Each structure stands twice: as structure tokens, then as C-alpha cells.
């Protein structure tokens, strides 16, 4: 009896660790969608916080807009998530002084 409980407990720990290490791939659009929503929400919080600097707010706005464009072009949450997680802000910061059409911040 104790041996069965030990194996059940061991199986539980193994299955939890394998679920925690799931990597978002194109085959896992549902996982990517959940992570994408969280990333966009975090960017939205940065954008909406009036205590953040104008540069932080504009950069967050541009990341959100570009992530939406990536999703529109590819129909893939994984591609949009990849952009949000891996794209640097250097290009956005260099172009910071010029407002783009449709931006609501700092016109």
C-alpha cells in the first residue's frame, strides 16, 4: 500500500514539473494566446500609468501596436508573443521624438 502511494506521489511531482516547462511553439497556440494576453496586459499597465515617463509610455504603446500588427500578419499568437518577449526597444527609442499617426500619447 505504501509503495503505491509513493509511486502516485512520484508521478504527481513528475507531471507537475513537465507541465511547468512547456515551451510555447506554433503547435501550442492556446498557450501562446494566454501568455500573449498577459504580456499585452502588462504593456497596457505601463502605458496607462501616468507616473511613467513619456518614453516608457510611448514605447509600451508602440509595442502593443506592433504586436497587434504581427498577429494580423501571421494569425499566430506565438509570433506576436515572440515579438513582445524578444524585440528590443532600441528602434522605438531612437524614433521617440516623432509621434506616429494614431498614437494617443504626447502629440
Which assembly state applies to the chains in this document? single chain
Mean pLDDT rating: 75
Structure summary, number of beta strands = 0
Low-confidence stretches: 15-19
- Spell the H/E element sequence: HHHHH
**Cα radius of gyration in angstroms:** 20 Å
Q: Specify the number of helices.
A: 5
Q: Note the gap between the termini.
A: 71 Å
Amount of helix: over 70%
Largest sheet: none
Strand residue percentage: under 5%
Please state the overall shape, judged from the principal axes of the Cα atoms: flat
Signal peptide: 1-20
Keywords: Signal
What report would you give on this structure?
The model is unreliable at 15-19 (pLDDT under 50). Helix 2 (29-48) runs antiparallel to helix 3 (54-74), helix 2 (29-48) crosses helix 4 and helix 3 (54-74) runs antiparallel to helix 4 (77-86). The protein has helices at 2-20, 29-48, 54-74, 77-86, 90-94. The protein has 5 helices and no strands. It has one domain. The chain has 107 residues and is mainly alpha-helical. The chain is flat and about 65 Å long.
Give a short summary of the structure:
Keywords: Signal. The protein is mainly α and 107 residues long. Helix content is 70%, strand content 0%.
Features:
0% strand; 107 residues; mainly alpha
Amino acid at each position: 500500500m505504501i509503495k503505491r502511494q509513493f509511486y502516485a506521489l512520484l508521478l504527481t511531482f513528475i507531471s507537475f514539473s513537465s507541465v511547468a516547462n512547456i515551451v510555447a511553439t506554433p503547435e501550442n497556440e492556446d498557450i501562446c494566446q494566454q501568455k500573449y494576453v498577459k504580456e499585452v496586459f502588462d504593456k497596457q499597465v505601463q502605458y496607462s500609468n501616468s507616473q511613467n515617463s513619456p518614453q516608457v509610455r510611448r514605447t509600451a504603446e508602440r509595442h502593443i501596436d506592433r504586436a497587434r500588427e504581427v498577429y494580423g500578419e501571421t494569425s499566430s499568437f506565438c509570433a506576436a508573443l515572440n515579438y513582445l518577449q524578444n524585440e528590443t526597444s532600441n528602434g522605438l527609442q531612437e524614433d521617440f521624438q516623432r509621434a506616429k499617426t494614431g498614437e494617443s500619447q504626447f502629440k
